[in-house]
Specification:
about 190 residues, Rossmann fold, about 30% helix
């Protein structure tokens, strides 16, 4: 069972400091999200990335937000109603995603990787739902001390994350730092 974000900490997910550190719309554009694509947000929480993804993909696209927490998905649905975003939500188990094979143009997982117990198995599940020409985007906390984020000991170093992603059947295409505290990896099914 992975660690699960405590919904009591929800205000920290939408803080001005977080938006300055990792602006969601700009980050999604940088990661290659385009109009008309199917975007699956794994561990979507309250919709920090799902809401702006809906704006980018537009009516010709589709945004699917998954999470382990019914409470977090409730917050996401409320925000989607307030903003007019069209987002499908799916409550998931901790090791599978109830989606057909090859659903996503972009399978997106932000700040979840460090919480997963069996990362290799979970990445194989993400590969299953990603289209053969699709992209996995993984964003997580660098293994450095930082004021926001989980304890350093719970974080996964980028080099280890790249190795796990590659071992799960993806070909890493790009990686780097988004800011001093957070990194990204993009990969395609191999």
């Amino acid at each position: 069972m992975p660690n699960v974000f405590n919904p009591q900490n929800l205000p920290s997910l939408d803080s001005p400091e977080r938006k300055e550190l990792i602006p969601p719309h700009d980050t999604l554009i940088l990661m290659g999200l385009k109009p008309g694509q199917v975007f699956v947000d794994v561990g979507a929480g309250a919709g920090y990335f799902s809401i702006p993804a809906s704006e980018i993909t537009g009516r010709s696209g589709r945004v699917i937000a998954t999470d382990l927490s019914e409470e977090m998905l409730g917050h996401l649905k409320e925000r989607a109603r307030e903003t007019g975003a069209e987002i499908e939500t799916i409550l998931t188990a901790d090791d599978t995603l109830p989606l057909p094979d090859h659903t996503a143009d972009i399978t997106f997982m932000a700040f979840v990787f460090h919480e997963i117990d069996d990362r290799g198995q979970y990445l194989r599940e993400l590969k299953r739902i990603t289209k053969p020409e699709g992209t996995l985007v993984l964003i997580d906390w660098a293994k450095v001390d930082s004021p926001p984020g989980p304890p350093t000991k719970h974080r996964v170093d980028i080099s280890e994350a790249i190795q796990i992603v590659s071992s799960a059947g993806f070909k890493v295409e790009s990686n780097g730092n988004l800011n001093p505290f957070q990194y990204f990896i993009t990969a395609r099914p191999a």
